[in-house]
Design a protein that fits this description.
Chain B: InterPro entries: GCP, GCP_C, GCP_C_sf, GCP_N. The complex is a heterodimer of chains A (499) and B (678). By secondary structure, chain A is of the alpha/beta class. Chain A contains 21 helices and 14 strands. In chain A, 43% of the residues lie in helices and 17% in strands. Chain A is globular. Chain B has 678 residues and is mainly α. In chain B, the strands form three sheets. Chain B has a two-stranded antiparallel ribbon with strand order 1-2. Chain B has a two-stranded antiparallel ribbon with strand order 3-4. In chain B, strands 5-6 form a two-stranded antiparallel sheet. Classes of the chains: A alpha/beta (499), B mainly alpha (678). Chains A and B meet through helix 11, helix 16, strand 11 and helix 20 of A and helix 14, helix 18, helix 19, helix 23 and helix 24 of B.
Amino acid sequence: MPRELVTLQVGQCGNQVGAEFWRKLCSEHGINNDGIVEEWAASGATGDRKDVFFYQADDERYIPRACLIDLEPRVINGIQNSDIRNLFNPENVFLSDHGGGAGNNWASGYSQGEGVQEDILDMIDREVGYSDSLEGFTLCHSIAGGTGSGMGSWLLEALNDRFPKKLVQTYSVFPNQSESSDVVVQPYNSLLTLKRLTLNADAVVVLDNTALNRIATERLHIANPTFNQVNSLVSTVMAASTATLRYPGYMNNDLVGLLASLIPVPQCHFLMAGYTPLTLDAAEEGGGTRAVASIVRKTTVLDVMRRLLQPKNLMVSASARAKDYDKSKYISILNIIQGDVDPTQLHQSLMRIRERKLANFIDWGPASIQVALSRKSPFVKSAHRVSGLMLANHTSIRHLFNRTLSQFDKLFKRNAFVDNYKEFPMFHRMVGAKQEANLEEFEDAREVVAALSEEYAAAESSDYIDRADGSSADLATQMVSQLNLASGVGDQRAPVRAG
Amino acid sequence: MHAQLFSELLLALVGNTGEAFERRDRMITLNEAVVDWVPPPERQQLNRLAMLGAHYIALEAFVAALAPQGASVRPTSLYRMALANGISELLDVYRAAVLSVEAHLLHSKVPPPLLSVQQFLLEFEALLPEVADLVSEVHGGDLVGSQLMRALSLRAQSGAPALQSCASRLLWHCRQVLLKQLESWLVHGLLLDGAGEFFIKRRSPDGAAAASGRHRPGAGDAVSPSPLADTRPNGRQGAGTVLDWEPLEWHAGFEVSITDLPPDISLPTAEAVLFIGKAVRVLKQPMSAAASHQALHAHAQILGFSQALHRLQQQEEFSSLHFEHCVESMRAKVSGLLWDLVQHRCDLMGQFEAIRSYFLLGRGDFYQQFLDESQALLAGVPKPNTAEADIALAFQQAALKSTAEHDALFGAGTLRWQPADPAQQQLEADGGLPLWHPARCTTAFVPRYDAWDGLFLECSVEWPLQLLFPPEVMSKYGALWQHMLRLRRAQLALEGAWATLQAFQRCKPTDDSLPRLPAALRAALYQERQEQHHFVSNMTRYLSMDVVESSFAQLRSAVASARDFSAADAAHRLYVDSLVSQAFLDMRQLMSYLEDILRQCKELCSLVQNLAAGSLSVEAAQTALTGIRRTFRLRQRVLYQCMQSGKLSSRAPALRHLITRLNFNGSFAAGAAGGAAA
């Protein structure tokens, strides 16, 4: 029972995405909706590992190592009434007593998390107890709402405290920044969550709703993509990024092996995901012939690798990447290619990409396109011979943070909607008997995210390492000292390097 | 001339001297004391004729000595017996000639002139001395087997027609023996060779020891340390008369003895003969009989060989062209039969895949698990008495917890450990180390890693697949395994270091479980780790994707298109050799740089560990890190220059693959250039 991963799905989005993910995993491993391995999948050695994500109950059923957490019952009830209602361990479902949700308020989610910490940590402890050598946690959530962002943030900190040596990877859905949202405090929630993602997570796979919607409309030709269709994209990425853990090959058979080469600089751990060929089961069912006809079926290794480098296949919005795109650089790339691959083509493809300079890499350290080959599930029929996932550490992601920062600034300048937050202990202090707003948390989070963006910007220049080596006080050192003053404690977790 | 003298002469001609002729020193001459009336010219003629008698005696003695007679001390040379047969045939003719002389004498009223008698025996005057000469050469030089045949074939090229045809005839007799031996070997897989004359021999059990330069006195009396010795009937006596097949026989049981190679059989043909015989031995195994219709088919085919050999036997003149053609067609047939057997009996591709899974680390999750299980063990120093058992336990445990659990072929492999002390190894190489041990592979220089370098994988391949996995191939696999495992260990250690550094990074100020590190040191550690990890992981990626996977695809198609055993065997050997060469294991210089690089990786990892354990001060860590970084960069630069140098142009394609990976964003080359400038 090796290198297990416990999945925590928090909030509405997290649970929807999570449910899709488990559905996908079950179909890939031939597990039916009740957790029983189908007869046709049970025979002999399929060479897959179910034990990373599932454990077996006494009756041989496969139970996902997953905790379903939400503050309002709608989505989880939906799962419990759906065809996969018997899949999850009912003990691993947490719903708040009042069922009122977090009202899209980060602070509410966070403090509700604190309030029920015993229940939740007990649940996680029990889940951890089922594993032999737990490797870490996977969190799926969105960063814009209340529960996924607020309670997710609290959970990240709590995991850090309780399991300091375990890895934490998140699949974080970023809000659609291009259109006005019904959640007006989205920039606040995002920023506060980003601080935790920066400080308390080892790796964050960024899934940008803007890009997901764009992919659904432009690439899959779905006029008004539903949640399910978008979630299906997310779960495809999640399933593909865990392919080497479940269908082991030569290497990348544990999370450390996947992440260690992707994240050379600890702060820069926000990964973009790209996937090709982009088709959805949903698209093929609902999109009709037009969608199917538009899909190109030629999938050689080179095609797949080249398409993965195209911005339109990335699940981070183009607006974030358009700016200064020429200057931005790849810090690392990992391609997980599944299917029927001729290994001799691999080198040729790498050469071709290098010759045509399709990927612009950093020059302050070694970097390359790492390719991991993985088998495809024998139980899922696909029209494509080869499919590929790219996880890339790209400096242009800072524009996404900058956009969050500027939207935050717009609101914060006017102190808009701050009152919603002031009710919660983190955002006020008592002066005598009177409550007074304490917005240091906002400022602190802003510093952290700004420093993160700076770090990515710095990584674009070739003297990045020399800068870090130099003991003279540079920008980063100045900033960290400010930060220390601001937060009151010498916060060593700050994402900047200082002497 | 007296009639009486003639009868004396006739008797003397068949070796019986009377009064008139006397025997002295292997000569028969006219006794001048008795026969004093013969004039000198005639006396000379008589003496010349009488010499035939002397030769006759010698030849007769030769024939008589070789007549079958009870048990002799030494097994009689079959070729000499054949020669004796031939000679006695010749002597028959000679006796007939002498008889005809007698008849002639009796018929003529007056004693005929001596010359007319001489005329009857003219042919023999040329032949007998030559043959007697041959016989004394055979005796004197103790010629047997192929030497004897060579001596004969030399004479068969004589210009004198009588001599030539006589020698050919004698050669024919010897060749009958050869053909019998061939038949026995080719059709039945048995060595019919009491005197050790056949050009195929059982390899003596101490062959391996002899090869390593140690002389073993008195072969056959001491207990040999070789693993082959236990079941093997010893040495030359009764060699191979019993069809007892042992696992290693195919690879080490028999050999072509070049000194015993008869004239007009070339070495390649001899090798083919060796192959056929070995294959026949395999095919005749009861184990092969499971598929009865197949076995019957095989037996019928093999029996067909004897007809072909009989046809050869009937030919008066030996044609090596015919022979070679015959052998080649047999080889093709047998090879096909063997291939049927291998294919029918077992899943060959499955076996190759299992070897790839375990020897070439294809089953990554299993090795991941194994290195996890044994992490604590491998971090320490092996205890000579328990190391092997401990590590083997971890190996088995890992199988239970990974996909190897369902793999039937996992059980074939056993993890072994022996101290990697070079002095000891040298000692053991003489006798103790099995033939398939990686240390036996003298062309591979596997970079050393740590005290656990003595680990090696033992694999028992199911019969009859063993035929395709000879010890020398297994030793190459073993070397590849050691190399890849060491790289993998370095890679995992570096990944572990990353996880530890992450814990440092996220560590809260209130948490005392980890010591404080200055951010600059942390960043430098991250940076150095990244560079090393990039190097090592790309090296492993290169090995697994560009080398193993690509070559394996070729092997798969070669085996799929193979129609006989030899083709599959050749494809497999090519595959293993190309793995070794693309891994650059045969390049000592390159491997020694790699060894230095791996050592730096190990030092960095232990540095991070010591920091985490709090047993190293920050200052000491900084100094150590500077040293590690300097050495690592230096070695990497030298390695790069070495790869770029023209010396390795023969490896250019493989090197290009590796460099593409290492130098994808140009930093590898930039480091080399920058270092050169500095």
